[in-house]
Structures are given as C-alpha cells and as structure tokens.
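> forwarded from #structure-qc
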C-alpha cells in the first residue's frame, strides 16, 4: 500500500481480523485495529503527514533525542526519515508461542544526518502483531561507529480514548517525575491514579514495567509492558495548546492520550559494536490488570 506521498506502508494481519499498519515514513505504526475493526491508536483528522513531517498520531519513534532539550530538532530525526524493509530479517524465537505476523524496518544515518549527529548507527524496528491481537515493538540500536555515543528514545504512543475525562492511568503512583511544564523540576506523584483535567506533560522516572490506561466509558484498558524503557511520558496538550497546533483539531485532545515507553533521564551509551534493545508490548483488555508484576 502507498500513502499520499507515494511512500510504502505495510499492513500486518492476524487470522482473527486484527491489523496493524506501519509506514516507512518514520517507521511509524499509523493504525492498529482489534478483531472487531476498532481503531486503537489516535490519529488526528488534521494530520496531513506530508513528508518529511511525521503524522500527528500513531506511534512515532523518537530517536536519538526525546523532546527539545538537545542539539537536534524536537524528538530527533528518525520519525521524519524513510526507513527500509529488511527483506531477510532474523527469525522469531522458536519458543514464541503467540505466533506473530511481523516486519523489520531499518534506519541508517544519511550523509545529512551525520552532519547533525555524527554517529554511525543501525536502528532495527520490529513490529509484531500477535495471534491475540497484541502489538509489540522491538527496537535495537547498534553502534557501528568507531567511538561511543549516547541517545534517548521513546515510543510516542497516541492511544485512542473515548474522552480524556474518562481516563485513568495506574502503575505510576508514588513515582518521581519531571514536569515538562515546570522546567524539568522533579516531583513525586501522590495520588492513587492519574486523571486529567488540564494540560499534562510529565516524564515518570524509573517506573514499573507495566502501566495500565483505563478508559471507563469504552470499558477498555491498554496494558503497556516494557523492557529496556525505564521512563514513561504522559502527555495531553489540552485545549489551549491544541488550538496552537496546526495538525490537531481544536477538540481532538479529548480523544487521545500519549503514554510513551521511553529512555530519557539516563541516556543509553553504546560503545562501538554494542547494541541496546527496547521493547514495548501493548495489550488491550476489558478491565485493569498488571497482575503479573
Ligand atoms: C510529548 C512531550 O511527548 O510530545 C511534549 O512530552 C511535546 O512536551 C509533545 O509537546 C509533542 O508531540 P508531537 O507528536 O506533536 O511532536
């Protein structure tokens, strides 16, 4: 399938009717549907996704920088690049019982990228759709340079919700966080669970590996399980910021919540030849549980 820029998109399907669509533009998952055909990721109706701008929604990859504190553009360059498909990817582990449909995408720096970020790397993103409809993203960054480098990373996941006022996040209670709205001051979460009534932009630090996003109205819970991704970003722009964003409808902030598995506070450092792996699995269940933790 091609998008309106003529850039390829790959559709993964499972036998029960679930699907995931991945764009070579940014290696971005732009749609994920359950077996009833319901869309689980938010995408803005105003998103025009005209390359190189990433589409507002889905799951953009933030690499090698998260946010705007650094020398690079906001959230790094990976989400703007055209990735390639690895036609001969390593196979899935033999013991993987949840037989998956998957695709491996690769990103290597262009001459232009090297001017801004002079480090040779290979970023491999595996997107898997499980038999049970779960979505798993596995990124591997390899240092193929002659010197060490460090980076931050996030799966900037726009989840689709009925209404932000119905949403509650569990699993981040008592965690320390940076409030991006208050110039990165460090706070400690006090409440039972996170709810929303105004702009929200926080980075929860060294958080547990399971976070649940509950949508009461839809009776749907997104359970995010992560490995190699200690931090969790929770972001909703609310009304004022949405109005200032060209790619987001004025009221669309109500239908989205960004919950990102990320590495931000302590960037990853890789020596030549070393590899880092960050895995995020999103499962949708009828109620709340992170019971295995
Ligand atoms: C969030 C950040 O993850 O991304 C916010 O915490 C930022 O500070 C937002 O405004 C921007 O996202 P996007 O997708 O519009 O680049």
């Amino acid at each position: 399938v091609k998008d309106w820029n003529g850039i390829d998109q790959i559709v993964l399907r499972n036998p029960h009717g679930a699907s995931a669509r991945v764009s070579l533009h940014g290696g971005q998952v732009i749609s994920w549907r359950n077996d009833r055909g319901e869309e689980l990721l938010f995408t803005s109706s105003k998103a025009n996704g005209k390359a190189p701008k990433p589409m507002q929604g889905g799951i953009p990859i933030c690499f090698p920088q998260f946010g705007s504190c650094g020398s690079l553009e906001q959230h790094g360059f990976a989400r703007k690049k055209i990735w390639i498909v690895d036609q001969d990817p390593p196979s899935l582990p033999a013991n993987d019982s949840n037989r998956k449909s998957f695709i491996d995408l690769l990103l290597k720096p262009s001459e232009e990228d090297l001017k801004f970020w002079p480090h040779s790397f290979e970023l491999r993103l595996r997107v898997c759709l499980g038999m049970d409809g779960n979505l798993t993203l596995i990124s591997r960054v390899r240092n193929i340079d002659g010197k060490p480098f460090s980076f931050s990373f996030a799966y900037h996941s726009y989840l689709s919700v009925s209404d932000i006022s119905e949403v509650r996040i569990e699993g981040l209670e008592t965690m320390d966080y940076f409030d991006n709205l208050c110039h990165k001051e460090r706070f400690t979460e006090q409440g039972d669970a996170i709810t929303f009534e105004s702009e929200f932009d926080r980075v929860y630090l060294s958080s547990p590996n399971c976070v649940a996003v509950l949508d009461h109205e839809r009776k749907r819970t997104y359970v995010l399980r992560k490995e190699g991704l200690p931090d969790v970003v929770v972001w909703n722009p609310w009304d004022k910021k949405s109005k200032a964003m060209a790619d987001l409808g004025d009221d669309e902030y109500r239908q989205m919540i960004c919950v990102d598995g990320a590495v931000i506070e302590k960037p990853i450092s890789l020596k030549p030849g070393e590899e880092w792996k960050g895995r995020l699995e999103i499962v949708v269940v009828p109620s709340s549980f992170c019971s295995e933790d």
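QC bot note: The chain has two helices and 19 strands. The pocket of 6-O-phosphono-beta-D-glucopyranose is lined by residues 56, 67, 74-75, 156, 180, 201, 233, 235, 258, 260 (CB under 6 Å).
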